[in-house]
Amino acid sequence: MRKILLILFTAFIVFNCGDHRQASAEDLKKAENFSLNDLEGKAHSLEQYKDAKAVVLIWVSTQCPVSNDYNTRVAALYEQYKEKGVVFLGINSNKEESIEEIAAHADENNLRFTILKDPGNVIADKFAASFTPEVYVLNGGLDLLYHGRIDDSRRESGITRRDLSAALDEILDEKKVSVSKTKAFGCTIKRVN
Questions:
Q1: Alpha-carbon separation of residue 4 from 17, 63, 91, 111 (angstroms)
Q2: How far is residue 34's CA from residue 57's CA, in Å, rounded to a whole number?
Q3: 135 SS3 class
Q4: Which domain holds residue 145?
Q5: What are 92-110's pLDDT values in tens digits?
Q6: Which of 69, 65, 126, 122 is nearest to 95 (CA)?
Q7: CATH number of domain containing 99
């Protein structure tokens, strides 16, 4: 009996948590405007970037080893695209990572783009973001153009496909993104609930 209850409880958790978020992420076509504070307390909303050619939302973490393996690559991507009308916004939704810790981590890793704190993982839930790192690319009208991974390998030496760069290059060339969805991987976002 105990074994059956454990199986039922596990199935309930998987059905009500994992599947719900995944279905929501697949259904997202257009983002809702939101406002979050950066690490200095200044509010940023998606609408303020309506003139950008692309807005890259990257869910980040200070403690996730996979996210940390991407710090150098993300910093380089920001430098490569910042003068081309592409806005990068890091979002930290992990409940146990403080603003002070995030700011120190960004400074140590040369992450010069704006990083926003998502208290209570409200925005992560709206986007159904599950991993760090995980990327959503929007246009100025908040249409979702790309969702998924940065590239296909945690280790830089193993990269065979640079998905985020490919998507941004197509957007800047005013082409439709040919691969608009890939499977993100990394550490799960440590949610409040």
A1: 20, 36, 39, 48
A2: 12
A3: strand
A4: 30-188
A5: 999 999 999 999 999 999 9
A6: 122
A7: 3.40.30.10
